[in-house]
Amino acid sequence: MSVVYLNGEYLPAGEARISVNDRGFLFGDGVYEVTPAYRGRIFRWERHLDRMRRGLAAIGIDFDAAALVEVNRGLLARNDLERVPVAYVYVQVTRGIAPRTHAFPNPPVPPSVYGFAGRYDRPAREVWERGFKAVTVPDQRWALAEVKAVALLPNCLAQQAAVEAGASDAIFVRDGIALEGSHNNLFAVFGGVVATAPRSNYILHGVTRDLVIELAGELGLPVEERAIPLRELYRADEVFFTGTTTEVRPSVEVDGRMIGDGRVGPVARGLYDAFLEATGS
Ligand code: PDD
């Protein structure tokens, strides 16, 4: 059985217990991170830490997230994930345990910290080369999407809509603009130019997104961080997603419409190869 981390202890997943009064359970009142590790090497931890710090500050939880790197290491070691090609570590911090009232407990209570780790199963290359499908959904999330909050109901509904449509990814559309996926960032290619939504409060500022923008630069591909209207997305040469549990995933169909010539394109392929190289995986 997998070993999880809960409030200072490592224990079998089946033995971990959390109070019904935890505000994560009652309100989704907390933030989380998912950090990849390639053969045990935790990748770009500082960026995940920065984002978690910003999220904690945004929702007013006083917690020193720096020590979580040890939890990441501890979970990888205890679950025998130090030698697997790709693993990921999930860590969440909630506002803690207190009788249910909307306002924060006063005085504050200790945050609850929970973590687990797992293996990431990368699709076989021939599956990747066939490409994937995406559908669009209205973006019904709150306007603080840059906070990696554990409250993910709109993201769950979006991904379920994708599954029910036989697709791999769901694209949030707000006011006609295609923003990001349910758990990944969105890119499109127009005439050799790589486009992705700019950092704002309407998208999560993905660590993989930043890496892929850097890799595009190294490959000499121009990148535009700009709004992508959905009507333009349908006419893109290529569409792909990026994320810790997505890596680089090309879509050859969006809402049943063929993207480009319906095949995985050279930009997604080049960036995926560069991603595999950069992560040493
Ligand atoms: N999701 N956008 C959203 C809404 C996300 O939830 C995620 C990550 C990303 C990509 O961020 P990054 O490249 O830093 O993983 C973009 C995680 C993996 C999850 O919810 O499981």
How would you characterize the overall build of this protein?
This protein has helices spanning 23-27, 45-59, 68-78, 125-130, 153-164, 207-218, 230-233, 266-278; strands at 3-6, 9-12, 30-38, 41-42, 86-94, 112-119, 132-138, 169-174, 177-181, 185-190, 193-196, 223-225, 228-229, 238-243, 247-254, 257-258. The protein has 281 residues and is α+β, with helices and mostly antiparallel strands. Strands 7, 8, 9, 10, 11, 12, 13, 14, 15 and 16 form a ten-stranded mixed beta sheet that branches. Strands 2-1-6-5-3-4 form a six-stranded antiparallel beta sheet. The longest helix is centred in the N-terminal third of the chain and has 15 residues, at 45-59. The model has no long low-confidence stretch (mean pLDDT 98). The site of N-(5'-phosphopyridoxyl)-D-alanine has 15 residues, from α6 and β14.
Architecture blueprint of SSEs:
Blueprint lengths: L2 E4 L2 E4 L10 H5 L2 E9 L2 E2 L2 H15 L8 H11 L7 E9 L17 E8 L5 H6 L1 E7 L14 H12 L4 E6 L2 E5 L3 E6 L2 E4 L10 H12 L4 E3 L2 E2 H4 L4 E6 L3 E8 L2 E2 L7 H13 L3
Parallel strand pairs: 7-8, 7-15, 11-12
Antiparallel strand pairs: 1-2, 1-6, 3-4, 3-5, 5-6, 8-9, 9-13, 10-11, 10-14, 14-15, 15-16
Helix pairs in contact: 6-8
Bound molecules: N-(5'-phosphopyridoxyl)-D-alanine.
Rg calculated over all Cα atoms: 19 Å
Structural class: alpha+beta
Q: How do the SSEs run, as a string of H and E?
A: EEHEEHHEEHEHEEEEHEEHEEEH
Total beta strands: 16
User: What ligands are attached or bound here?
Assistant: N-(5'-phosphopyridoxyl)-D-alanine
Q: Can you give the helix content as a percent range? A: 25-40%
Rounded mean pLDDT is: 98
Largest sheet: 10 strands, mixed
Gross morphology is globular
Uncertain stretches: none
Q: How far is it from the N-terminal to the C-terminal residue, by CA?
A: 26 Å
